[in-house]
């Protein structure tokens, strides 16, 4: 059985007796029922992890840290998922599964056809929620680095600052398949996958993406839901690139 794993946003030092933050201590002791003397694992998102022993004395909760272990569970390359905001709580699912599939970054896009449009305090609250989901998913799946979740923005904003490497936009009527495009650049070490909301990208967004060097790709003969498409593309791309 795997040990309970916790992200800790504090400097971790081998051999230290670390007082745990209140929220982490509550989650470990009150929610997961971890007991005094039980083995756990801590990581700080900078790479690697620390085996530790939980120490509970009254309301004080500490972790006795062991030696740093340079274990990683990252892909050999980097995948950024640029996701048009879907309706309801579908973005929660996308963020969680993107962590499990190894994405380094998720960029929520307030697309022209997105039912959900976020701004101001509402956007800040949703972003904090997604980042908590990403943290929990990393704890669960064994990653020792946190996936970045950006604040919601427009497609035009992302295109102006897009990273180097192939930028592939999922479109059911594209001429090229995902495998066709990746075969042209098998040495890529960073790819960006763009998935529209339920209504798809608008003509204006498609034109802007094309002018910015984005390549439209199809993924099989079926039309996938927005919350499925990006995850399927990530899994397929990492397999095709042998990441």
Low-confidence stretches: none
Q: Categorize the overall geometry.
A: elongated
Succession of helices and strands: EEHEEEEHEHEHEEHEHEH
Across the major sheet, the strand order is: 8-7-6-11-9-12-10
Strand content: 15-25%
Task: Provide mean pLDDT, rounded.
Answer: 95
Biggest β-sheet strands, sense, barrel: 7 strands, parallel
Structural class: alpha/beta
CATH superfamily label of the largest domain = SPOUT methyltransferase, trefoil knot domain
> Quick one: how many beta strands?
12
Q: Helix count?
A: 7
Distance N to C terminus: 27 Å
Helix content: 25-40%
Number of domains: 2
Describe this structure in words.
The protein has 243 residues and is of the alpha/beta class. The chain has two domains: 5-65, Beta Barrel (Ribosomal Protein L25, Chain P), CATH 2.40.240.20; 78-241, SPOUT methyltransferase, trefoil knot domain (Alpha/beta knot). Helices cover 33% and strands 23% of the residues. It has seven helices and twelve strands. It has helices at 22-31, 90-101, 120-141, 155-160, 178-184, 203-211, 226-240; strands spanning 5-7, 17-19, 39-43, 50-57, 60-65, 78-84, 105-109, 148-149, 167-170, 176-177, 190-195, 215-218. A seven-stranded parallel β-sheet has the order 8-7-6-11-9-12-10. Strands 1-3-4-5-2 form a five-stranded mixed β-sheet. α2 (90-101) runs parallel beside α3 (120-141), α2 packs parallel to α7 and α5 (178-184) runs parallel beside α7 (226-240). The model has no long low-confidence stretch (mean pLDDT 95).
């Amino acid at each position: 059985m795997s040990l309970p794993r916790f992200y800790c946003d504090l400097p971790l030092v081998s051999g230290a007796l670390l007082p745990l933050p209140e929220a982490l201590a509550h989650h470990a002791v009150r929610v997961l029922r971890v007991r005094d003397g039980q083995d756990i694992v801590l990581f700080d998102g900078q790479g690697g992890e620390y085996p530790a022993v939980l120490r509970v004395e009254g309301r004080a909760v500490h972790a006795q840290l062991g030696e740093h272990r340079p274990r990683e569970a990252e892909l050999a390359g980097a995948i950024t998922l640029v996701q048009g905001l879907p309706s309801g709580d579908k973005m929660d699912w996308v963020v969680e599964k993107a962590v499990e599939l190894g994405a380094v970054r998720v960029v929520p896009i307030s697309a022209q056809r997105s039912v959900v449009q976020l701004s101001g305090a509402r956007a800040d609250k949703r972003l904090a929620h997604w980042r908590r989901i990403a943290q929990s998913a990393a704890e669960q799946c064994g990653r020792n680095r946190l996936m970045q979740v950006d604040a919601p923005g427009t497609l035009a904003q992302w295109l102006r600052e897009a990273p180097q490497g192939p930028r592939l936009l999922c479109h059911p009527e594209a001429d090229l398949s995902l495998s066709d495009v990746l075969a042209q650049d098998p040495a890529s070490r960073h790819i960006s996958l763009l998935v529209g909301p339920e209504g798809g990208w608008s003509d204006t967004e498609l034109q802007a993406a094309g002018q910015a060097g984005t390549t439209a790709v199809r993924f099989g003969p079926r039309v996938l839901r927005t919350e499925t498409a990006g995850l399927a593309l990530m899994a397929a791309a990492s397999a095709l690139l042998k990441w």
